Amino acid sequence: MLVIDVGNTSTALGIWRSGRVGGIVHCDGDFAESFGAADRLIAKYHPEAIAYVSVVPAKDAKWARFAKSRGLRLCVISCDAYPGKLCYDNPRAIGADRLADAAGAIERYGAPVLVMDFGTALTAAVVTSDGVWRGGAIAPGFPVMGDYLNERTAKLPKIELGKGKAPKIGRSTEEAMRFGALVGYRGMVKEIVAQLKANFNEDFRLVATGGYARWALKNVGLDFRIDPDLTLFGAGLLASRQLKLSPSRPPQNRTKGV
């Protein structure tokens, strides 16, 4: 399958085959660039279907037309594709990326697991040791933080976050913003993890994905496993089960101390 993850900032594409994801390409979200990358993957790997994850509804119709024009079955990941119990007031409101992240993390690392996705937004998904998806957290990501300060204040500039290190203290406006964003962000991550662990009394395996994960978690002092292709892997896993393209191992629960 061709697996596609359409985000607010960028689009990731890859090929799911035999339970693995390869050929991964990241595009800036432009349709021409994304469609071109998809066509190159199709020409090289000849997929049977598309596993589609999106948090941008405005782009869904164009991708549906793309799939139809290429003669590929389109499997849109939603709560209907998730095999476990979803403890959520409105399961259809759950972002497809969060479902894919959780499914992929359970398959790769077992439960209980706490997955954090560091993209345009910071999202967390919690699966307890009984395999139930319990919900999670949604907070501003680095792009939102930087853009908001620039848009809502008269004198603060637009800065690029996601690389470099935090200064010891801000000795310029840009350094002060970078210090506040990175150090404050890491504090937010640690507090979310601590609160969720306390609320559920679980020894969660910590898994991170998303473009800003490695930068945000450097020196944060938490034992996160960074898994860059987790969302694409989870999308392929859920779609393969739904379309019955290939068998999959059952998730392995992880107990404390193992």
Q: SSE order, as H and E?
A: EEEHEHEHEEEHHEHEH
Helix content: 25-40%
**Which architecture name does CATH use?**
2-Layer Sandwich
Q: What would CATH call the homologous superfamily?
A: ATPase, nucleotide binding domain
Instruction: Indicate the low-confidence ranges by residue numbers.
Output: 246-258
Largest sheet: number of strands, sense, barrel closure = 5 strands, mixed
Q: From the 3D structure, determine the CATH topology.
A: Nucleotidyltransferase, domain 5
**Number of H- or I-type helical stretches:** 7
Could you give the distance between the termini? Answer: 34 Å
Name of the top-level CATH class: Alpha Beta
Structural class: alpha/beta
Keywords:
258 residues, alpha/beta, Nucleotidyltransferase, domain 5, 5-stranded mixed sheet, 7 helices
